[in-house]
Amino acid sequence: MTDETTQLLYPSIEKLVEEIVAVNHAWKVACELFGQDSPLSISSRDLKTYLQVRLLRSYAPEQVYLIEDKESEGEPLYSLRLRESIGNRLYAEHLPMRIAQKILADKELEQFERHN
Questions:
Q1: What is the superkingdom listed in this entry's lineage (predicted)?
Q2: Which residues, other chains included, contact 97 with Cβ-Cβ below 8 Å and sequence gap of 6+?
Q3: What is the pTM of this model?
Q4: How far apart are CA 41 and CA 114, in angstroms?
């Protein structure tokens, strides 16, 4: 395998966090411009979720974990908290709990969650 192939198949935690932040921003812009139900908005949201799940499955619980964001309003959310900052960030955006419970196995949720 070439270095490029390895980086594509096994991205670093830094690369995944960078992609999650960028896609999250693109999703918010797409929602503002085209509405929440536009194909671009839905695709961006789903890509962000996929990248977050990939981050968790690759790096949790040693480098990232799920914690309930008790300050969020509306639907219950997890924050993907980083154990060490990456580019001045201590989290990799939010993931709705209902989505996490739908996508992740119970065993994964138990492994990835940190309770206060």
A1: Bacteria
A2: 68, 75, 76, 77, 78
A3: 0.92
A4: 30
